[in-house]
Specification:
membrane, 238 residues, globular, transmembrane helix, mainly alpha
Length: 238
Amino acid sequence: MRISPTKDDGRDAQERRSETRWPAFAGLMVALLLYVSVPNPDTATLRQVATVILLLMFIPLVIVNPHRLTRQTQWSRWLSISFAAVLVIANQVNVTYVIRSLIDGSANGTTLLLTALQVWIANVVAFGLLYWELDRGGPVARGNLQRPQLPIADFKFPQDESGDDVDEIRRVSSAAADWRPGYVDYLYVSLTNMMAFSPTDAMPMRSRTKIIMASQALTGFILLALVISRAVNILASN
C-alpha cells in the first residue's frame, strides 16, 4: 500500500502526527555501535558484514523519508520490517556468545559482564525498533492514516483505553486527542519487557507480538540469571 501526504485541509494535522526519523536513528546508532563493538573475535567478521548490510538497507529508507516519516511504498514497508528483524536476529548471535561464555567461564569476568550489558542494551533497542515497525502498519501509517484506516493494532497502550477517565487523563487519550504511539513508547515497551520478563505498559494483542515479546523476555531472563550467577562467583573468588 502506498502512503503519501494528502493535499487536503488535514495535511497540517498529519504533519504534526508524523514522526521524525531521528529518535529511531539515534537508537539504531547506539544498537549498531554496541553490536559491532562486542569483544568476540570469533564473530567479528560476521558482525562487520551484518553492520554493512544493515547500513545498506537503511540508506534507501532515508532516501524515501529523509526527515519526517510521511511516505511509504510496499517495498519500503517490507524493507523497514526486514531491517528491524535483521537487527534483532543479528544481535542474537552476540546473545548466544554471552550465554555460552557465561556458562563455560571462558572469558574474563569483568569483560564478560560489560559485554552482557552491551548485548542487553542492544537487544532493548533492536526489539523496540521491531515493535515500532510492526504496530498498526508502522510509523508511516500511524502518522498519516485516519484512525479507521489503520491496520490492526499489535499493542494496546494505556491511552487507548483512557477515554472514560478523569478529564486531565482523557484529554491525552487516543479517543479524545487522536494519540498515536511513537518510537519512545515502543522503546519503553521493549525496556520493561526485558526487565520484568512480561508486558507492563502495553499489552500484546496479536499472536505474532506475543511470540516476539516472549522470545525477548526469555532472552532477558537467561542473560540476567546467568549474569547474577557469574557475578556471585566473581565476588566469591575475591
